[in-house]
Structures are given as C-alpha cells and as structure tokens.
Specification:
heterotrimer, A mainly alpha (430), B mainly alpha (173), C mainly beta (223), A: mainly alpha, Serine Threonine Protein Phosphatase 5, Tetratricopeptide repeat, 25 helices, 0% strand, globular, B: 173 residues, mainly alpha, 6 helices, 35% helix
Chain lengths: 430, 173, 223
C-alpha cells in the first residue's frame, strides 16, 4: 500500500509543478480587508432595532413583526449566526399565527425559510398551506419545485416547473439549470445559468452576485477552473462583501494550485468576518493535507461544536455523516443521522449517505443493495460515485468500481487532492 | 396602498435571503438608454383595492389586466368579497353591483376644474384619509355610521407635516 | 511537508474536501412574483391632486418600496430597468390617451411627456419625441430636494420621502383574518416613521387635454 502511494505522489507532485497556478493574490488581496461587512451589518442592525422599538411601542403589530423577522434573516445571511435564523423564523411563525395562518405571503416566507433550514417537508407543507390560502400560483410552483427537488419528488418538481409559462424568466432558468444538473447535463445547466445571468446582470447587484457565483461553482464542477476563478473575481469586484466567492477562490488555491498556505490565508480571513461552519472543515482538510493532524482535529472539533447547536437542525447532516464516518470513527452515529435523513427525504443522495454509513458499519450487503438500487446511475455527484465505487469494490464488482473511480477522477478539482490521491491508489490496487 | 401587501411586506421578508440591502445602480455610461420594450409588472390607482378585493392567487393577473378590461374579469370576485363583508348599501346609496362596478375599474377619477380630494371622488391628495373613506363606504352602511369598530381605522393623519412647496411630500425620516 | 502528508492524515480525511466544495448551492433567490427581480417594481401608492401651489397645475405621485426604515433608506435606489409610467385617460373610456414616462439611470431621472400614447396597453417603448425633463435623484440626507423644471411648466422630483400613507394595516389584516373584531382607538399607523422611494411630477393642466375630469393610474414596466 505504501509503495504505490509514494509513486503516485511523485507523479502528482510533478504534475502540480508543471501546472500553472490560477489564483493570483494580486487579483483578490485587496478584498481581504477588515470590516467589509461592517456597513451592511450596521445598517441591518439599525433596521432591526427600529422595528424592535416599534414592536415594544405598538404591542404586537404584525407589520413590525414581519419586518423584524426580515432583519433577523438578513443578519443571518450576512453573519451566519444561527440565532438570527431561529429568531427570524419564530417571529414569522408568530406573525402568521396572528392571522390564523391565512396569509399566503407569510406562508411563502416560512416555506423558503424552511428550505434554508433543510426542513423540506415543512417547506412543502407551508407551500401547500399557501395554496390553500389562495396564494400566488406562480410562487406556489416555484416552491413546489424547490421543495420537491430536495424531497426527491422529481416528477412533481419537473411538472411544476413545466407549468411556468415564461420559459425565459430568471426564476425558470435557474431552476431548469438545477434540474439539468441533477440529470447529469452539466453543460446544459451551465448554459441556462449563463442565460439567467444575462437576464439579471444589469438589474440587481445581489442577483448578479448570486447568479455568477453559482455559475462559478458550476464551472468548477465541470473542471473549468479558470472560468470559475474569473467569475468569482467578477463577483467580488461587484460586491466586496460577497464572501461566498472567496470560499471558491480558496478552494481553487488549494485544490487546483496546491497552494495551501494561500488557501488558508483566505479561509482565515473569511472566519474573521463571518461565521460559516463549513470553513472549519475546509481548514481541517487542508491541515490534513499538510500533515498537521493536531490542527486538523481542532478544526473538526470546532465544526462539531458549532453545528450541533440546536438552531442548525438538519442543515449540516451531510457534513456530519462524513465527519462521523471519516474522522471520528463513529459510524453508528452516522447511521443514525443517515437513517433520519432517509425518512425525511429519499433521494439518490440521501440513499448514498445511508449506504455509506452501512458500509462503514461493516454491513456490506446492505450497503450494496442500497447503492445498486438507489444510487448507482441515479446521481452524478462525485461523492456518491466515490462511495459507490468503494462499496462495489468491497463486494467484488471490480470493473464497475474501476469505471466509477475513473469517472471520479474527472471531478478531481471538486473532490480535492486528498480524495484524488486515494482514488488513484484504489485504482492501482483494483 | 394596502398594496403594500401585494408583495412588499413579504418581499422584504424573503428578499432578505438574497437581496440583502438594495443596490446602488450601476452606471453604464452617461447617456440615457431609451431602447427596448418595457413590459408591465404592476399597476395601481386607488389605495387598497387590489389587496382587499383580489385574492393573492389573482393579484398578478389583476396587475396585468388593463383597466378597461377589469370589470369583465373581476366584477364577480369584487361582489363576492362585498358579500363576505355583509355589504348591502352605503352612504352613496349604491347597491352591491353598483359599488363593485365602481371599484373594480382601478383608476383615480381626477377633477380638472377645481379642488381634488379622495372623499369627493375627485382625486387623491397627500393628507386625504383614504382608508377611512373606503372603510366607511364598505362598512358604514346607508348612514355611514354602522359598524363603528370597522368604519374607521382611527389613524387620521400622516405622522409628518407635508410641505406647501414642490415636491410636497415630507422629507424622509 | 509533502512527506508528512503521506505519512500523516492521508487515510483520515477522505471526503471532507469534496463535501465542502460540492456543498449545496446557495438557496435560490427569494421569489416574489413575475418580473419581481427588481425591488422597485412594487407601487405602494398613487396620488393625483391639484397643485397646492398653482391651481392651473396637476401633481402626480408614484411611490415604490414601502416600509423603508431610516437605516434602510440610504441604500435604496430606483432600478435602471424599470419604467415608471403615469397613464391618463381624458376621454372617459379607461384607456390611456397620454402617458408620462419616468426612467432613472446613473443617478438621474428623465421624464418624457405628457405625450400621446400611440398604442395603449401592457407594453411601452420610450416616447422620446415627447417633451423631456431631467433631474438629479435626491440622495438620502440631502438638505433640500433636488427638483427641475422645463420650459412648458413641468416640474419633477425623484428620491426618498417620508411615506405619506397612513393606515393601521396590522390591525386591518387581523380583522380580515378574524383574529380581531374591530380597530383600536387610537389606531397604530403601520407606516409611521418609514420612507418610500418617490417620483413626483407636476404638469400644467393644459397639457392634459380639455376634459373636465381625467382617469389616472400608475404602472411599473420593466425590460
């Protein structure tokens, strides 16, 4: 096992050295300033205090309640502080209750908030309630799609999307892109997202950034790393506080450029500005790649401490399953979480988590049955391909496993250098 | 305005997820771009009409129905909402069909020959208590005095004085 | 470092990296309705009244973006892809005969009209043949409003203003929902202390035709 590792590693090293780096600090260092969020934070906090003061003066007035909820939810989006998400959500529920849950617009807001919190069944229920309250059919259909895709109701989601009349509308294009991506047509998805970007690029700064950063992610999935990088830079040029784009650049510095010091610098900057729990995991990955196991474990611990706060609910289950299987050798815990997810929503992705959890619990047969029936050829997500390959390999399906691993290599950038190494080793052994 | 309701309250809530803050517009060049075709998103005239009388499911339809076609498309719905309010008549002596017919075509009738005010159906001024006028017409019955708890929202004036000079609206808070 | 990597955590971390990167895309942008990808599309109120300063003139007001708290007002703006259009029917058929079109770009508002509509309906092109007036958009915190007028007596303004509307909307919604039986006395003005993005156009009545009364409504259209 060691010998091929070293050999492969030498090859990897050689190939990195010859590859040109993409992330150039000259392009983005200016964005790594302290306080980029400060003015937005100050403004939004002032908005919150305005509506909270009115709430105190007025008693319970649903206008003030909804506006305060809005400010909390925007503060969550800015800071990642989950308390704001919880408070915003409970204010919305209170406001809705004041109107006997008869106001479709609040129900739509609750539905979208439930999606943010990965409470997809609730999201679908709120959307149904909004339908019952004669809510806008157009919004109903958009949310049917959004919740349906997460719950694995692809037929219904596709149907709802098809009912939208304007096939050139932004709302349609971004969802169609999601559907095509789900179906494995990444190129088509990218094309649709580009069209969506054309629609909004001169209309709204936030939609410009949202659409272009999603497009950048998709370029990355497709291995079009240079285009991905350029798109993230354009996002930051538009809005220096759009920190999400920096995460993508950090990944490019690490995964493509193998410039882990630079990647860490960016990630530490992000952590200094906002609370995104997944940044801890990215740092853990990089510390691991550098061989700093103590630091790695520390970041994993910090991640766990954060996302196991009650406010996060199921938002980070996917990450937790990975951490419990890969890092903490607690596959039983992973199985518990995966089992909960599958009850909530049965999708190729959640079946993959379950199969993987069984596999890590030594239940190869169960893993094999699940992977064969519900995952294999049903999702094109590199994680799932990788898991399935290992499950197949352990069950004697070497050819299929090899084919899957080779497919994974096409997503090397997305999977990162550590996983790529492991794939190559595994391939050499099969 | 009850229109606020069409989307804006929730818009404010949900836009929060992504549309954090509003945008400074980008300045492409210093010339005005007057090209292209603009397509209707929203329309309104009298306050509250859309919100009170049109169900959420049909708001977008109402917003993109030209006023001359509103009566045919929405008269029945307006009448059924009035029925729900227990409406029979009002100070103008209008029966349900007449009142629905007057409301459903959402335009402001504005006098060109003299003073304008919402209460006399001759326009809408900044200080007009339009909501109380509407509540009185809907809930006040023949005398205008019925349903005292409903015929007036007891908010009678703006919270800031208007200006006697253009643009007349008060400076922002 | 590379050696360490090999001997160290290689088999430890397997999939964290991929999960980080392949993580769910950010939630879809909030949905609010067709054409609503610009926040400036929602009209909150329309006013039309005889000018208090000159009774030979008519004032039209179109307000958008309701419930702006003071803190939110500074960042509010008029989107560049939206046309704000006053529609005027002076023949009594509820079909517009004249339009006043307002566009905001680069911190300036340009107003065309009143001008004959040509083809009425749900789509518009800019009537560049009409008389035009241009004004700088008044900023939040400006000492006095920036206004402009043209030779035919039209005056215009665009910028944040106190929302002139007053209403106990909160209580009203509860009454409609059946969770309150009546208004409070005194009521609570749901719009107290809040601002809107306002467009004000004052024109000589003579430019609106000779009818004794006109029908007016406001529209937002976007491209």
């Amino acid at each position: 096992m060691k010998a091929p590792s070293i050999l492969l590693f030498a090859i990897l090293l050689a190939s990195c050295a010859s590859k040109k780096r993409i992330a150039n600090p000259g392009d983005y260092t200016a964005f790594l300033r302290q306080g980029v969020l400060k003015s937005k934070l100050t403004t939004t906090a002032a908005e919150l205090s305005f509506w909270e003061t009115r709430l105190k003066d007025h008693g319970t007035n649903y206008v003030d309640i909804l506006q305060a909820a809005s400010a909390h939810l925007r503060l969550f989006a800015l800071t990642g502080k989950v308390d704001h998400l919880v408070l915003g959500d409970s204010l919305l529920k209170f406001g809705s209750g004041m109107l006997r849950n008869s106001d479709p617009e609040i129900l739509f807001a609750l539905s979208q908030n439930a999606i943010t919190q990965h409470r997809f069944i609730d999201a679908a229920e709120y959307n149904k309630a909004a339908f019952g309250a004669e809510g806008d059919r157009y919004i109903n259909r958009l949310l049917e799609f959004d919740a349906g895709m997460e719950l694995g109701n692809y037929k219904m989601a596709t149907h709802s999307l098809g009912l939208l009349e304007d096939k050139k509308a932004f709302d349609y294009l971004i969802r169609r892109a999601k559907l095509e991506d789900h179906n494995g047509n990444l190129d088509k998805a990218i094309e649709l997202m580009q069209q969506a970007f054309e629609k909004v690029k001169s209309r709204s700064k936030n939609l410009y950034c949202w659409t272009l950063s999603n497009l950048a992610d998709m370029y990355g999935h497709a291995g079009r790393v240079k285009e991905s990088y350029e798109a993230y830079i354009k996002v930051l040029q538009k809005d220096t506080s759009y920190i999400y784009a920096l995460k993508g650049i950090a990944w490019i510095a690490y995964s493509h450029d193998k410039n882990s010091a630079e990647a860490k610098k960016i990630l530490h900057y992000i952590l200094s500005q906002t609370n995104m729990p997944d940044i801890y995991l990215a740092l853990a990955e990089i510390e691991g790649w550098e061989g700093n196991n103590g630091e790695k474990t520390g970041y994993i611990r910090r991640f766990l401490d954060e996302v196991q706060k009650p406010g996060y609910g199921d938002m980070y289950n996917k990450y937790l399953i990975s951490v419990f299987t890969e890092e903490l050798a607690d596959p039983a815990k992973a199985l518990e979480i995966a089992g909960k997810e599958i009850k909530h929503r049965a999708t190729p992705e959640t079946y993959d988590w379950l199969a993987w959890a069984y596999f890590k619990n030594g239940e190869n047969n169960k893993a094999m049955t699940l992977a064969t029936n519900y995952v294999y050829k049903k999702t094109f997500e590199p994680n799932a391909l990788f898991h399935t390959a290992l499950v197949f390999a352990a069950n004697g399906k070497k050819q299929e496993a090899k084919a899957l691993l080779r497919e994974c290599l096409e997503s090397s950038f997305e999977l990162g250098p550590v996983t790529t190494m492991i794939i190559k080793e595994k391939l050499a052994l099969l | 305005m009850i229109r606020i309701n069409k989307f804006s309250i929730v818009a404010a809530v949900i836009l929060g997820f992504v549309l954090v803050g509003c945008d400074k517009d980008d300045a492409p060049a210093d010339n005005f771009d007057t090209s292209g075709t603009f397509t209707q998103n929203d329309q309104m005239a009298r306050p509250a009409i859309n919100t009170v009388f049109v169900s959420s499911a049909r708001k977008n339809e109402f917003n993109t129905t030209v006023p001359s076609a509103m009566n045919a498309a929405f008269n029945a719905q307006f009448q059924s909402v009035l029925t729900g309010f227990g409406y029979t008549t009002n100070v103008l002596g209008w029966d349900k069909a007449t009142f629905a017919g007057a409301l459903v075509t959402d335009v402001l009738n504005v006098s060109m020959t003299g003073a304008t005010a919402f209460g006399t159906l001759t326009g809408r001024g900044l200080s007009d208590d339009v909501i109380t006028t509407e509540l009185t017409l809907i809930f006040g019955g023949a005398s205008g005095m019925s349903n005292p708890g409903l015929n007036n929202d007891n908010v009678n004036a703006n919270d800031k004085a208007f200006s006697a000079t253009f643009p007349y609206l008060a400076s922002p808070f | 470092m590379k050696k360490k990597f090999l001997l160290g955590g290689l088999l430890g971390i397997v999939l964290i990296g991929s999960i980080i990167y392949a993580a769910d895309h950010i939630d879809a942008p909030a949905v609010t309705g067709p054409g609503s990808t610009s926040p400036g599309n929602d009209i909150t109120d329309i006013y039309a009244f005889q000018s208090p300063a000159d009774n030979s003139k008519m004032v039209f007001v179109l307000n958008t973006q309701g419930l702006l708290s003071p803190a939110a007002t500074g960042a509010a703006s008029f989107p560049a892809n939206v046309m704000y259009e006053f529609n005027i029917d002076n023949t009594g058929d509820n079909i517009e005969d004249l339009v006043i079109q307002c566009l905001v770009q680069n911190g300036k508002m340009r107003v065309y009209g009143p001008v004959a509509v040509g083809t009425p309906g749900l789509t518009s092109t800019v009537k560049t043949s009409g008389p035009s007036t241009e004004v700088a958009v008044t900023g939040y915190g400006a000492g006095s409003p920036s206004t402009a007028s043209n030779g035919n007596g039209t005056r215009i303004f665009a910028g944040p203003r106190d929302d002139p509307f007053f209403f106990d909307l909160g209580r009203f919604k509860q009454i409609i929902a059946g969770t309150a039986a009546s208004f409070n006395n005194p009521g609570t003005d749901s719009f107290a202390g809040t601002n809107v993005m306002s467009i004000v156009v004052e024109v000589p009545k003579s430019l609106l035709g000779a009818a004794a009364s006109i029908n007016v409504w406001g529209e937002t259209k976007s491209k």
